[in-house]
Amino acid sequence: MRLYTAHRHAIIWLLITGALVAFLTASPLPSVSYLGIAPVMFPILLIFSSSLAGILPAAANLILMLWGAYSVFGVSGLWFALYLLPMAIVFLVCLEKKLPFFKTGAMVFASMAFSMTLLFVLLQRMAGGALYSEVAKAAIKGLNSLTWRDEFLYMLLKTGFISHGLPSDSQAMVQSLFGGWTFRPEVLSEFYKQINSRITALLSVYFPSLLTGFSLMLSFPVTGLAVKLGHRYGASPSLEMPPFSEWHLPKAANPALLILAAGYLLASFSNQVILGTAGQLMFNVFSTVSMIQGLALLNFFLKRRGLSPLVRFLALMLLLVVFQIAALFLGIFDQLADPRKLRASQSLDQFNDKRM
Where are the domains of the chain? Predict the structure, then answer.
């Protein structure tokens, strides 16, 4: 068993996790920071520590993450275990059994989607069906307890995130009893209403994005990079993963992609919340799969030009972070035009197999 594969990598990933947990717990609004950053960063850290360091270091990282959640949320913070543990166990089992990479990615994605949905349903029931509103209220409560609350609200006001709703010639602030300045009570009430509304709206997009787009990115590109590095350092098997430049969807996936795109377009004309959410999920899957394929296409051309892996990695990260729409259209172009001729060779192989 891969209990402990590399001392150096075990220390590195524990230090990274420890630094992130310390930052989140020491932030001015730790509950907001944890809910905003931990669901994204913690699974990534677990994937890399599992592949590069082994089972025991991954377990130590998980314990450290749960300790941070407990220190911020109390006992309720241990719900993070339901989010992180299934995915970590599935990935470690796949490494032990040396399952093919794309099967491993599919199982990681399924475990993430299942645990995330189950956790959301449980928390929604605990919040009386108003989870997003309860999170927003907790954020406002934490904001109201800050000693520099008014300075923070003033910054949000200047950035346009909130507005006081008063005429331009009105005074939004009054002098406090301690000689400083504070916002008027009616202005604070307006600020908190707007913050509640904005946080609720952000969370309504955040969860579907985690469930689909992020889970797909974690299960395939992130997991693929972790497996590649783990194999390079002799810490984990390669899982027979093909080069990223050859990743592609077969032509048989075209009808499914068309259904996803059409479903999103149809749902966008509906005013029903359930249909709107379903359409958003469809678009997230379609766009994420297309972006991954677009990144693979760019990597193919950069690799053919002889660029180093580091340069290719930086170019792919730039495309993913800054030019996502370009990655999306590159993926669609690759699916339709097949410039790498991967699907043509695949069809020829299937034809020869049938003749034999």
Answer: 242-356
